[in-house]
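Sanity check

After download, print the first record. It should look like this:
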Amino acid sequence: MTDRQLSEEFDQIGERFRLAFEQAPIGMAIVSPEGRWLRVNEAFCRMTGYRQEELVGQMFTDITHPDDRPASLEARRKLIEGDQTIKRLRKRYIRRDGSIAWVAVTSTVIRGADHAPLYSMAQIEDVTTQMEADEELRQSESRNRELVENARDAIYTADPAGNFLTVNSAAVEISGYSRDELLRMNFFDLIAPEDAAQATEVLARSIAGGGGEVVQLRLIAKDGHSVFVEVSGRVIERDGGPVRIEGIARDISERHDLQEQLTHQAFHDSLTGLPNRALLLDRLSQALARCERTDRQVAVMLLDLDNFKLINDSLGHQVGDELLIAIAPKLRQQMRGSDTVARLGGDEFAFVIETFSSDRDLAAVAERITGVFARPFPVETGGVQRVSGSLGIALNHPGDNAQDLLRNADTAMYRAKQQRRGSFEFYDDGMRRKVLRELQVRNALADAIDNHELELYYQPIVSLTDGRVLSVEALLRWQHPQWGWVSPTEFIGLAESDGQINTIGNYVLDHTIAQAAAWYAAYPDALPLGLSVNISARQLAAPGFAGTVWKRLASHKLPAAHLRLEITERVFLDERDQVVLDNLHDLGEMGVSFSLDDFGTGYSALASLKRFPFTALKIDRYFVRSITSPTDPAPISTAITMLGRTLGLTVIAEGVENEVQAVFLRRLGCPAAQGFHFARPQPAQMMPPYLASDGAALATELKPPTLKTAALG
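Expected structure tokens:
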């Protein structure tokens, strides 16, 4: 059909069709049976970038993308031959500028009376934007599928009942099941029975609320091992109802194991593996809460090893640690599974017992615990070690908390140590009163010096031969404004235990040296042979103590030879402390002498009597008190006197209170004594009668003189 014929045909069709063709918003084209453009509209020209005159007469394949030409030709063949009445095809055109336009072509054939094809009408719609969006979507979906498949976390979808719809490779790896196996399983088939109820509740809440929760669960893998996972998901709804569940399960087994390890380390002793103080306090608090609901009692036992420090110091901490490791399982074996055995630190162990019928039951447990130490413990690096343990038992009372109960057990344990090491004691109200009293004394003692409550008294030490005053001993007294006189036996030990003894000891040294210097100046013709001052083991263990003594002597111009320091046998427990040895050596070099106090009651070694400049031994008042008649054998007092004579030391008997004791000691050959029989401790202003020339002797009958008050000048 020629252009003229086509125009005539259009004329016949009518002006209305022409206008519709030309002004159509989409591309319109008339194509000859062999595939040439006969007419195109402006919309098609804008779509391809060609002018009408450039397209008319050309083959449609000239602007079709080469990759799409075979399919286009095949589709047109079927249309022209009548196999199809309408051809729909998506393909690409190459625009005039070389860019690509995706188009959707719908073609139909116009046939003549003889059914021969006259031309085809094509509608062409530019779908480039849609195709690019679809392509981007396909690529995005492909990337997402790749990300899901290669993700380290298990990603899955499931129906509302929990049946798997899709799973990724990580789900296969975590569970140990194949993909096909998982797709035939339900999520609940994997969950550990202990966590099934929790998972059911979470799923129900998620479906009801349309949201999701994060929950930690245990899965059972195909080989039977547990996998800790953190599961998060959401419920997808459609038409107001759930259609599927999308979820992620992250394997947190390593993190869980690390948390378990850290938790164990935080609440267990690293050496023995037993619960530590924190876990013990938590369990004890829970036990106390339970007993409030059941009207039952909770018992706490506190065990402290006896002389464990000696093992550490002599054999080393490694041996001490190995000993604790050996003891721990033995202690655990004595308890039931419901009881708690803990190591509080050092050589202290604690036990929490909730189920018992009476004190007798607790005593039986205590006997089993202390019985553990009946046999020695083999230690790899230290041979076989023997050790004992002292035990305190406390039961709770209304209002007691965990700390109260531990403190009470600790008090009872120390009572056991004082009574008999390796034994046990129950805590009672008397101990509570004693503890409160000790606390009051400790607090008040801190202010005693500043408040001028401490006072020095002096007691003469006399010759049992002629009654002369040989020296005086300075004794500390404390008069509290409310309590009155506080016994030294009550506060000296507390001062040593909390370190206040250093401050108090320095106070005593300074004032006694100053007082002695004043006496020596006032009574130059009747000087006592020495001034005795008690020194604690803590003072001797203080660096520079010897220098402190020297400064005080120099400040008051008192010769060092007139000062004698009385030390107890406890000092020899610290002989390994080089500071103690240095102080003793330096003091001896100055000319200071030493008296060994309370001899026979402690731990001293006889060799130590020759190592240090001792000039005197003191027989403890306990042994003197046992002398009841002039014919009493008194073997210990006799032995100490003979030992002192052999070593060339002055022996002084303490606590002589009657004539019988004085006569016995004089006949024994004990050279000196002190006690109420001769003179009570006196304040400084009452001492001149003992120091003046007319009062230097206490009379040959060993009776105390009548005291006179004299000014010191």
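If your output differs, re-run the checksum step. Summary of this record's structure: The first strand starts at residue 27 and ends at 31.
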